[in-house]
């Protein structure tokens, strides 16, 4: 598999240096692996810190900026950051009002962020954790590590970030983050596996006429393999899985994201969005706001995820609030 | 076990993680996210780097330092889990050179800490499935009057067997659990790396 890289080991450092060069409003510590807003923060503002394995760009570093994250901690590819990194980020951005850690529900992320939260508390930083677990492909039971955190992370970071920017308190910011997660569900389908630089070859083989249904964002196989359907059929299957969730019953307006996993052209994402729009309308759901593009990727995986968030006026107003980050920018 | 032997153990683990990096990556590609080989390799390289200038007063201190380094350098689930195992084992040791029974008790403390942190039970297709049988075998040998080399050799074989026995299991913890029944038929990467840790102990103890 061909890749643009110098060495597989230097991909993350080289990419972070590139992020710094491209976005002067970010302060990127390539050594400590912390991406934060440049300049002094606003005293008394609740700080938002997220992070996770790399390979999901623009998540999370691309969402650092006004109206969203204060800092991000990129780990190695598909590997959660270490506690020291998260602690360094939390310490750097805490303005005395506390820090909200936004954590995707994976065993490694949960363990490392938990350790970081304990270390931060020891240093007198007030910490709240928002766990994101929106992927309906995983049954949330004692037999699994629980639902995965995927697309809804963007909604949580945007909406909680907007509330923090307005000057809300620590518990309030964490609460809105948890509410967005609770009201959001996602489902993904892959047409190819992804290739990590370290492995150099795809994580699994997928015949030309088949798709992996219910994939995550780490190149792991999905729940099952099926014959490739039309965009209409795939969206119907994904929406059926998402809307079967009790929390989305009776949804009349929604925040919807059709997200590319890294190797799917935008034109195909719009084909999918057209189906999502038509099929949701047929079920009485109005798409109040939408996002189409590559936001939570899985390296070069061809595929897409659909995230639906049952939105009320408060959440929509926070969604509309100004944001200025490398990957999301509007208003202001 | 004295400090020199503990150092040999750590060095042997680093060598094993280097030799088996690709195998761990392949196993993790099948049911995880293909990063276990690189993570363990990076972690024990970092351990080796810190050990060069580190002069511990005891095996206890040395193992705690190994754990702390792993937590700070690995990430993923394996960093906190292996790091906690070494830290808990180190903390459970006396300040003097441990005899095999004391080492066993410390390793049990390490296993307990892993099980608590990862909430994993035997049969969940995790590192516990190599760790637990290794310690049971170690204990049998110590009770039969065997020395450290004999106990470590039996533990290493039991860990290997335990890792192989994860093949037919369905994963209930970690990323492999997302696959449900599709995780069956693959050896668990974490159990495999745990077998390497015990293999390294046997190598060091046989010197």
UniProtKB/TrEMBL annotation, chain A:
> An example Gene Ontology cellular component term from the record?
cytosol
Q: What broad class of enzyme is this?
A: transferase
Q: Which Pfam families match?
A: Dak1
- Keyword Transferase in the entry? The reply is yes
A biological-process GO annotation: glycerol catabolic process
Alphabetized PROSITE patterns for the sequence: DHAK (PS51481)
Gene3D superfamilies per the UniProt record, alphabetical: Dihydroxyacetone kinase, domain 1 (3.40.50.10440), Dihydroxyacetone kinase, domain 2 (3.30.1180.20)
Q: In which pathway does it act?
A: Polyol metabolism; glycerol degradation
Q: Name one GO molecular function term.
A: glycerone kinase activity
Query: Do you know which NCBIfam families this protein is assigned to?
Result: dhaK1
The protein's name is phosphoenolpyruvate--glycerone phosphotransferase
Query: Origin organism of this chain?
Result: Kitasatospora indigofera
Automatic annotation (TrEMBL), chain B:
Write down the InterPro entries for this protein, in alphabetical order: DhaK_L_YcgS, DhaL_dom, DhaL_dom_sf, Dihydroxyacetone_Kinase
The record's annotation in SUPFAM superfamilies points to: DhaL-like (SSF101473)
Check the UniProt entry and state the signal peptide residues, or none.
Answer: none
Question: An example Gene Ontology cellular component term from the record?
Answer: cytosol
Q: Name one Pfam family in it.
A: Dak2
- Kinase found in the keyword field: yes
Kindly indicate whether the keyword Cytoplasm belongs to this entry.
no
Q: Which PROSITE patterns does the UniProt record give?
A: DHAL
What Gene3D superfamilies does its record include? Answer: 1.25.40.340
Q: Which domain of life is it from?
A: Bacteria
Domain DhaL: residue ranges: 4-203
Q: Which GO terms describe its molecular function?
A: glycerone kinase activity
Q: Give any single GO term for biological process.
A: glycerol catabolic process
Alphabetically ordered keywords of this record: Kinase, Transferase
Protein name in UniProt: Dihydroxyacetone kinase subunit L
Q: Identify the species of origin.
A: Kitasatospora indigofera
Q: Tell me the lineage of the source organism.
A: Bacteria, Bacillati, Actinomycetota, Actinomycetes, Kitasatosporales
């Amino acid at each position: 598999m061909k890749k643009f890289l110098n060495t597989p080991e230097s991909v993350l450092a080289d990419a972070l240096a590139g992020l710094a060069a491209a976005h002067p409003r970010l302060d990127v510590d390539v050594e400590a692996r912390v991406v934060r807003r440049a300049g002094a923060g606003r005293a008394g503002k609740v700080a938002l810190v997220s992070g996770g394995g790399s390979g999901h760009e623009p998540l999370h570093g691309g969402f650092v900026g006004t109206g969203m994250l204060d800092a991000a901690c990129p780990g190695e590819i598909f590997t959660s950051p270490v506690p020291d990194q998260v602690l360094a980020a939390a310490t750097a951005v805490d303005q005395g009002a506390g820090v909200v850690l936004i954590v995707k529900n994976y065993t490694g992320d949960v363990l490392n962020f938990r350790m970081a939260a304990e270390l931060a508390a020891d240093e007198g930083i007030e910490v709240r954790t928002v766990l994101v677990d929106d992927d309906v492909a995983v049954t949330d039971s004692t037999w699994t590590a629980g639902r995965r955190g995927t697309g809804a992370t963007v909604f949580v970071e945007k909406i909680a970030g907007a509330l923090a920017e307005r000057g809300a308190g620590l518990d309030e910011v964490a609460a809105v983050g948890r509410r967005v997660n609770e009201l959001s569900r996602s489902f993904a389908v892959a047409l190819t596996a992804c290739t990590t630089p370290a492995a150099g070859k795809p994580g699994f083989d997928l015949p030309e006429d088949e798709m992996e249904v219910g994939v995550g964002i780490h190149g792991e196989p999905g729940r099952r393999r099926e014959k490739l359907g039309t965009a209409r059929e795939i969206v119907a299957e994904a929406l059926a899985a998402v809307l079967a969730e009790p929390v989305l019953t009776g949804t009349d307006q929604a925040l919807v994201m059709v997200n590319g996993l890294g190797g799917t052209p935008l034109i195909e994402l719009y084909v999918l969005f057209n189906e999502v729009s038509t099929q949701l309308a047929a079920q009485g759901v109005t798409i109040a706001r939408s996002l189409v593009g590559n936001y939570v990727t899985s390296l070069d995986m061809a595929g897409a995820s659909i995230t639906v968030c049952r939105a009320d006026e408060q959440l929509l107003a926070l969604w509309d609030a100004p944001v200025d980050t490398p990957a999301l920018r509007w208003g202001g | 076990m004295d400090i020199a032997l503990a150092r040999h153990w750590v060095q042997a683990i680093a060598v094993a993680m280097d030799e088996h990096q690709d195998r761990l990556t392949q196993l993790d590609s099948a049911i995880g996210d293909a990063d276990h080989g690189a993570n363990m390799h990076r972690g024990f390289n970092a351990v080796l780097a810190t050990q060069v200038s580190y002069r511990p007063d005891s095996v206890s201190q040395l193992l705690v330092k190994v754990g702390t380094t792993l937590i700070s350098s690995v990430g993923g689930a394996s960093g906190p889990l292996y790091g906690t195992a070494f830290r808990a084992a180190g903390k459970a040791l006396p300040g003097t050179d441990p005899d095999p029974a004391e080492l066993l008790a410390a390793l049990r403390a390490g296993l307990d800490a892993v099980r608590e942190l990862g909430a994993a039970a035997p049969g969940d297709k995790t590192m516990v499935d190599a760790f637990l049988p290794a310690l049971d075998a170690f204990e049998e040998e110590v009770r039969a009057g065997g020395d450290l080399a004999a106990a470590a050799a039996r533990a290493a074989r039991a860990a290997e067997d335990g890792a192989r026995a994860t093949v037919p299991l369905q994963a209930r913890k970690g990323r492999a659990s997302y696959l449900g029944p599709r995780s069956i038929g693959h050896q668990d990467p974490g159990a495999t790396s745990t077998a390497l840790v015990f293999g390294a102990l046997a190598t060091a103890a046989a010197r």
